[in-house]
Design brief:
Helix content: 25-40%
GO molecular function, one term: purine nucleosidase activity
Radius of gyration: 18 Å
Protein name: Nucleoside hydrolase
Order of helices and strands: EHEHEHHEHEHHEHHHHEEEEH
Strand content: 15-25%
Keywords: Glycosidase, Hydrolase
Shape: globular
Oligomer: single chain
GO biological process, one term: purine nucleoside catabolic process
Number of strands: 10
Bound molecules: beta-D-ribofuranose, calcium ion
């Protein structure tokens, strides 16, 4: 299996992404690293522990990382994800805490020490990854690829007309990552909005009966409520889970390799991902920008059968 580290700020959709990665025989999840994003760092770290334990995979270590973006203030969003960040399920407290050491140290040491190149799945603000790349630039060669959920170009943003949440929270970090020379695949709103979950998916999940599936159903219901009210749709995409799906099943997604950068100084557009889709800048291609999904139903069918294999 392909070794991966998941950098995350759970988040209901992060939870689905993590559970899908844990369930996928194609992936070996070495660890989770956490970052301040949807919630503060202590909460996202505790949430990450609860998620691996729910999956029956408590042996997967969770390393706590950055409590603040590189230059800006944190922006927790309880109005989207609820007071815990993973509202919708009555979580039991985590049995174990974070592993000792900082996530950035863990990333650097593991990337340099592991016999194989490692894929990074990045589901929140990109602070930890940017810090690791600055701290030890040599790690760039040890990263197989970075797959991140973030940005939006054809769809615009979800926090401002121009900016998507993960990029807006730490645009400087995203800029460092995109300009690092590491092969990057972006799973932006352009792609996730083209990959909505089936209508009433939560009921189908609950029908499986296992604890994991009932937790997923509860989180899905909570997540849908906010999204559907804002967007006026009958179902919502699970953004971060779509990023893991795109890594697992690239044949179900469309996109293009092209130059991508991040606006960090715009008056109206800070946090915008600027995608040179028509290659007009003459800059080097640095990112595979996913812009669509050929079969959303199939994505969620595969996700559901993977999740059903987990836990009790
Ligand atoms: C992204 O922002 C967060 O709220 C979600 O977890 C996802 O990573 C979507 O814009
Ligand atoms: Ca997230």
């Amino acid at each position: 299996p392909r070794p991966v580290i998941i950098d995350t700020d759970p988040g209901q959709d992060d939870a689905f992404a993590i559970l899908l990665a844990l369930a996928a025989p194609e992936l070996e999840v070495l660890a989770l690293t956490t970052v301040a994003g949807n919630m503060g760092l202590a909460q996202t770290t505790d949430n990450a522990r609860r998620i691996v334990e729910l999956a029956g995979r408590g042996e997967v270590p969770v390393y706590a990382g950055s409590a603040r973006p590189l230059l800006r203030d944190p922006r927790p969003v309880p109005e989207i994800h609820g007071e815990t960040g993973i509202d919708g399920w009555d979580w039991v407290p985590a049995r174990q805490g974070a592993a000792p050491g900082h996530a950035v140290d863990y990333l650097v040491e593991t990337l340099l020490g592991h016999p194989e190149k490692i894929t990074l799945i990045v589901l929140g603000p990109q602070t930890n990854i940017a810090l690791a790349l600055r701290r030890a630039p040599d790690i760039a060669e040890r990263i197989d690829q970075i797959v991140f959920m973030g940005g939006g170009f054809f769809e615009g943003g979800n926090m401002s007309p121009a900016a998507e949440y993960n990029i807006l929270v730490d645009p400087e970090a995203a800029r460092i990552v995109l300009n690092s020379g590491v092969p990057v695949t972006a799973v932006p709103l352009d792609c996730t909005h083209a990959t909505p979950a089936p209508v009433n998916w939560s009921a189908a999940l609950a029908a499986h009966g296992s604890e994991v599936m009932r937790a997923c159903a509860g989180m899905m219901e909570f997540f849908e409520r906010y999204g559907n009210a804002k967007y006026g749709t009958a179902s919502r995409p699970l953004h971060d889970a779509v990023a893991v799906a795109a890594l697992l099943w690239p044949e179900l997604f469309t996109g293009r390799l092209c130059p991508v950068d991040v606006e960090c100084a715009g008056e109206l557009t800070t946090g915008m991902t600027v995608v040179d889709w028509l290659r007009q800048t003459g800059k080097k291609d640095n990112c595979t920008w996913l812009n669509g999904c050929t079969d959303p139903g199939e994505v969620y069918r595969r996700m559901e059968s993977a999740l059903a294999r987990l836990g009790r």
